[in-house]
Amino acid sequence: MPASTAPPATAEARSAVETSAIKKISIRLVPFVALMFFVNYLDRTAVSFAEPNGMGQDLALTAAQFGFASGIFFLGYIVLEVPSNMALHRFGARRWLARIMVTWGIVSLLFTWVNSSGGLYTLRFLLGVAEAGFFPGAILFLSQWVPSRHRTKILGLFYLAQPLTTVFGAPLAGWLIGHHGLFGLEGWRVMFLFVSIPAILLGVIAWFYLIDRPADAKWLTREERDWLTTELEAENADKTGHESAHAKGDLKTAFTNTRVWILAVVYFGFVYGLYALAFFLPTIINGFQDQYDTTFSVMDKAWITAIPYLPAAVVLFFWTRHATRHGTRTWHVAGPAIVGGVTIPLALYMGSPAATVAVITVTACSIFAALPVFWAVPSRFLTGAAAAAGIALINTAGNVAGFASSYITGWLKDWTGAYYVPLYLVGAFMLLSAALMIWLAARTPNDPQPLSSTTAPAENQR
């Protein structure tokens, strides 16, 4: 037998350890971090449910003012995003993610008593400051627990929380808004009160539940801990070995790496579309009443808002599963971007609420299918502090998109009187993301881990 070939028993044993370790992480760790993300995204987008259900009228907000209030959150996030992720790298995910959750929960709670547009702007900005670093920190944290061949699957399971936040969060928000008068508060204030408390509670639990690295996980066997530690150290050493002489896995690597900046622009396009839908879909649905001479209750609007996101969660799951089994290809990211770029403006030309929501559902499926696959890319060529900074830098571009899409969509709607021009712009940015992803894959065909394809999971190679 050649020296390079392991005995079958050893190969089988390693396969069993690998399968067991990944399964435990998928069951014990990923759902909790996904729950944190669920609450995070619900608190971030709660303002979109509040605006058409009393807040806009009570605070006398125009579409542009609401867009600015929605988007200023991202300016606060941008200010501290990279420093926050570097702090997570230094102090550990357990402490830093727990701290983030408690502080954002407290700020979110204060929305219950906001009474002016200026106060709304201030709290949205502070919410961004409080949340800064959570999403890239969660991505970095999960990436440090599994080898790259399992990363798309793990990030896909984590990302399910985002569309499911709207699936469950929209009806929950509608139900809470329906409790108008509770504690003497308007319905939208009741909603802010009760969606904020879980963040504080989860932050306290996270302090005791999360573990910074596999080597310290007592719920893994010694063999599983050793296998994970060895695999991750080998990957990091390999990535460091492929770095150039002037880039050794430090902070400078992220800011001087061309691929990081291109991926930042790609991510900008996706997030521009994501938040244009997230913040304005409830308002667009509210406008169906005048456009089609119909009437919806608060719960009707909540359920309609949720419709696109359930199929999006299903598509996300199977899309990332396919990418994991067969190896991530460029079209796993570029294909959905093209579909989303074409369908989002097309939705405006449908002749009924049902047809409009159906086309928007296709757009939502496209955006959510691509995002978790996209996030498996940066960790292929960055490690250590460079990974922390690179992921944060890419997500910063997403936060710029979040502000831009929120404010520009509202401003263009006020200026033109309709959502045609704003959504054409969304489509253009998503098509740009597709073009850049294809160009980047063609530009690096000889890269040690090319963007055009990742290695298929080990279990599929045997």
TrEMBL record:
Extract the CDD domains matched here: MFS_ExuT_GudP_like
Q: What is this protein called?
A: MFS transporter
Family annotation (Gene3D superfamilies): MFS general substrate transporter like domains (1.20.1250.20)
Supply the source organism for this entry. Streptomyces kunmingensis
Alphabetized UniProt keyword annotations: Membrane, Transmembrane, Transmembrane helix, Transport
Q: Do the record's keywords include Repressor?
A: no
Q: Which domain of life is it from?
A: Bacteria
- Classify the main location: membrane
Q: Where in the cell is it found?
A: Cell membrane
> What Pfam families has UniProt attached to this entry?
MFS_1
Q: Which InterPro entries match?
A: MFS, MFS_dom, MFS_trans_sf
Signal peptide stretch: none
Its membrane topology? Multi-pass membrane protein
Q: Where are the transmembrane segments?
A: 25-42, 62-84, 96-114, 120-142, 154-178, 190-210, 260-282, 302-319, 331-351, 357-377, 384-408, 420-442
All copies of the Major facilitator superfamily (MFS) profile domain together span: 29-445
